[in-house]
Amino acid sequence: MANYKPDLSCQNKFIPINFAEQILPGTFEYALCYIVENKLDLSGFDAWYNNDKTGAAAYPPSVMLKIILLGYAHGLISSRRIAKACEHNILFMSVSGDIQPHYTSIAGFVAKMHEQIEPLFTQVLMICDEEGLIGRNMFAIDGCKLKSNASKEWSGTFDELGRKKAKLERASKRIIERHQSQDGLGEELITQDLKQKEKLDKSAGKITEFLATHKEKIGSKGKPVKSNITDPDSAKMTTSKGTIQGYNGIAINDDKHQIILQAQAWGSVGEQQTLQPAVKQLKQQLDKLNTDKPKDEHTIKFTADSGFNSEVNLEYMAKSGFDSYIADNQFRKRNPLFKDSETYETEQEKRRLKRSKGKPRLFTSDDFHYDEATQACRCPAGNDMWRSGVNVKSHNQQYTRFCGYLKDCKVCPLQQQCMRKPPIKTGQQVQSINNESRKKLSYVDKMKVKIDSPIGRRQYSN
């Protein structure tokens, strides 16, 4: 039988360690320490401290930056886990010089020093540019949903939060009323109820304080949107795995070595609304980089997926100077390479087909008979419709809007094919694009022509 030496990997051993020898040249840790200690200007942190004569010594900003960035590189995003690594992991101990900061100090540094940390991002990009890591040939933007450490139960508009507060106060009041009406309650039950009342009062007070110290969020359509008491900057977002409380993480990277030039988390806006501010920040970063290198924006290509496709965004990108390629939801379906494949059907289309299985097809605007010369319109059932609007603007297009008579729509035999719900106040509405507006291609139509061309498909696939 074979005889092997024992595995002692779980055994403790006291050995002398030279921390400097643990950071080997050519590794990420070596590059991190060299850049932070020799390349970055950390003088902006000095103004934060005023302890040269009195007070305890502070943790050096260079050490805090190194252990935080090292932790993030290894997937440790929690301050507690980074602090624990500084106590037990030899690599973190070597990078930090065995200082071992408390997790509250790490969390405070990230939360309070964001204004001092942000300019370091540009300094790192300038170092990458000096090393020739940024090509300026093509940029790509993409995003992902990031879950925040906040409960969805504490989300709502100010009106909803006000009703929740009133509900908590009523529940607390009922506990007192029950005690007053039943003096013979046991001591254990009384103690349990008092704890429950204290919890309800604390929650109601938390809502009261939030409503008094914060302003209500207003969405892009001018209506109030939900705020979160625990994390006011986050928002409810729909993902493929359900609804989360979190952020839209948006990043723009260069194609040469996948260097990220712009990154930010957005909690109060949708993905489409992040394109314009992200591109503006990208231009600011490019202006700060080495000006000796050519940076003709007309030769720089910019790609984005269908999540950023909108008339407003395409118009902005057309005027920005970038050679943009932004796909729409039907881009793959128009590509003959995927004509016979179901692999690239969107999940939304699959759900729509599943819902509509066995149901009659809903009419589209093409099923309505519109005569632009007489400005008249008839529905698929042959009933006349009245003109409810002329030159109605939508997505930079002008439409003529028609509405069916309520008396006709209520008894129409084609109602299920025409309307999702039975009419109550008005009949079916339909709008047709005006002839003059039809001659003027929208930016969405122009992008479809551009991205469907052989060159456009090749550029987008890169």
Automatic annotation (TrEMBL):
This is Transposase. Residues 379-462 form the Transposase DDE domain. Pfam families: DDE_Tnp_1_6, DUF772. Residues 24-110 form the Transposase InsH N-terminal domain.
